[in-house]
Amino acid sequence: MSILTRERILFMCIHNSSRSQMAEGFFRNFYGENYEVFSAGSDPGEINQTAVQVMNEIGIDISKHTTNSLKDYDGQEFDYVVTVCGNPYNACPFFVGGKKYFKKPFEDPSIFEGSETEKIEYFRGIRDEIGDWIQDLFNYQINGKGNGEGNICCDLDDEDICCDSDDDNCCEPQDKRTEDNGCCTEDNDSKLR
């Protein structure tokens, strides 16, 4: 995909401070060479420093990200618009201008109450959920591969075959899925086909 034809994806939550920022960071890290990646919120605040910290732990730097209002993107079109709010779901923003819409609720880690250590652990959990889901969103929903269930289908030690032979968007029926949603056979590694 050339830079002139890159598709555009927008991640949204209410404050654009944690969840949508982490989602943007993951997607940009995994697929940013081929996509223009943005995030915004209906009531933007400041980027959450704990989100910055836990993303930095896994080698993804979101410290230079800015928080953005959905109003900043009025009149623009996106190929994919992704809402990552948790409950209450009706408080999540809506954006007109997407060709395809996806919704996946993640709890807001910034409202977690507990010690600093517990808070960081909670952020890590949400970070990992978002990272797993981002890969599945790309593989299944956008690129037509993956299991479509949110993260893992099965691994090579499982006797079950993960794919239906009638499903053109899945691996070949003799293949099994790995934990990173790649298609692989029992004698190769987890590379996507």
TrEMBL record:
It comes from the Archaea. GO terms for biological process: response to arsenic-containing substance. This is Arsenate reductase ArsC. Residues 7-140 form the Phosphotyrosine protein phosphatase I domain. InterPro entries: Ptyr_pPase (IPR023485), Ptyr_pPase_sf (IPR036196). PANTHER family: ARSENATE REDUCTASE (PTHR43428). The lineage of its organism: Archaea, Methanobacteriati, Methanobacteriota, Methanomada group, Methanobacteria. Keywords: Arsenical resistance. Gene3D superfamilies: 3.40.50.2300. Residues 173-193 are annotated as: Disordered. It holds the Pfam family LMWPc.
